[in-house]
Structures are given as structure tokens and as C-alpha cells.
């Protein structure tokens, strides 16, 4: 901002934002002070668009309230053992390929002797058997984990 005209042009551009309460221009220091609840990045972009010059934010961005923020949930890695009839090498490869392409699956281990498939990943373990039943056209069951008994 080198003159009063530049300062007024910028002030008018910023005053139109929702949440802006007050705008002050300091020509001697080339600074603009904006008071209110408004996104500083959006104001910076608007001023750059109006002046066709680079604008730098001097004050730090306001910190968000940590109580109001929700942390994104970390996906839980699960291990599911499925009982699927595996007749031949072709069935095994098809089963392994379909399961490994499923969203969230990280690892697939096949035990053809016992007709068991162990799946590890962040997939939805409840809907996986139904999905595989449709894809493989076979019966798919979840094998419940063995209960461990402790003797005191």
C-alpha cells in the first residue's frame, strides 16, 4: 500500500467478508489489520487477487479449539479367519486374488489343508463374508477365535 487510494481499495475488498468487524490500514508500515471471525487465508487470497501482488500473513493463524475438534479415528487392524471350501489350485488363487483386492485388506494367508483363509487389515470384518459369498459363489463363514482359559 503506497497511498491512501490503495489502502481504501484493499479495505473495501476485505470489508465484504462475513465476520469482518473492523479493518485498519497502516500505509507507513504496509500493514492491514483485520478484526473479526474470518479465515486469514481467504482474506490473503482476496487481497492478492485485488492488488495482483504477493501478500504475507504477519500474525499467526488462530489456533482451533481442541475440545471442538474431532480426531480422525485410526483404522483398527483386524485378523479374521474364514472357512472357505478350497477344491483346487485355481480356487485358491481366485480366492486369494479377490480377497487381496478388497478395500482395507493388507495380508491374506491360505491354508488349503484346513480350508482356512486368514485375512489381516482394516477391512469391515462383518461385511466381508457376505461380500465373498457373492464373489466366490461359495459358503463363507467366520471361524470364531479360540478362547484361552487361564488356570490360577
Overall shape? rod-shaped
Average predicted local confidence, pLDDT: 83
- Range of helix content: 25-40%
Kindly, what is the distance between the CA atoms of the first and last residues, rounded to a whole number of angstroms?
Answer: 80 Å
Strand order of the largest sheet: 4-5-3-6
* Poorly predicted spans: none
Query: What share of residues are in beta strands?
Result: 15-25%
Number of strands: 6
Radius of gyration: 30 Å
Structural class: alpha+beta
Give the count of helical stretches.
4
| H and E string | HEEHEHEEHE
Q: How many strands, what sense, and barrel or not for the largest sheet?
A: 4 strands, antiparallel
Give a verbal description of the structure.
It is a single chain. The protein has 152 residues and is an alpha+beta fold. The protein is 30% helix and 24% strand. It is built from four helices and six strands. It has a four-stranded antiparallel beta sheet with strand order 4-5-3-6, covered by helices on one side. Strands 1-2 form a two-stranded antiparallel sheet. Helix 1 crosses helix 2. The protein is rod-shaped and about 85 Å long.
What distinguishing features does this structure have?
152 residues; alpha+beta; four-stranded antiparallel sheet; two-stranded antiparallel sheet; 4 helices; rod-shaped
Amino acid at each position: 500500500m503506497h497511498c491512501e487510494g490503495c489502502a481504501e481499495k484493499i479495505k473495501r475488498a476485505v470489508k465484504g467478508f462475513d465476520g469482518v468487524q473492523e479493518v485498519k490500514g497502516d500505509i507507513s508500515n504496509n500493514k492491514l489489520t483485520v478484526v473479526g471471525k474470518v479465515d486469514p487465508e481467504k482474506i490473503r487470497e482476496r487481497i492478492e487477487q485485488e492488488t495482483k501482488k504477493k501478500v504475507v500473513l504477519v500474525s499467526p493463524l488462530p489456533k482451533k479449539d481442541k475440545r471442538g475438534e474431532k480426531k480422525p479415528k485410526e483404522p483398527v487392524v483386524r485378523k479374521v479367519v474364514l472357512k472357505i471350501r478350497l477344491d483346487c489350485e485355481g480356487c485358491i488363487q481366485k480366492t486369494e486374488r479377490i480377497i487381496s483386492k478388497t478395500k482395507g485388506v493388507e495380508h491374506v494367508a491360505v491354508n488349503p489343508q484346513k480350508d482356512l483363509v486368514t485375512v489381516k487389515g482394516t477391512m469391515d470384518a462383518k461385511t466381508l463374508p457376505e461380500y465373498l459369498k457373492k464373489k466366490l459363489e461359495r459358503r463363507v463363514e467366520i471361524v470364531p477365535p479360540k478362547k484361552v482359559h487361564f488356570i490360577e
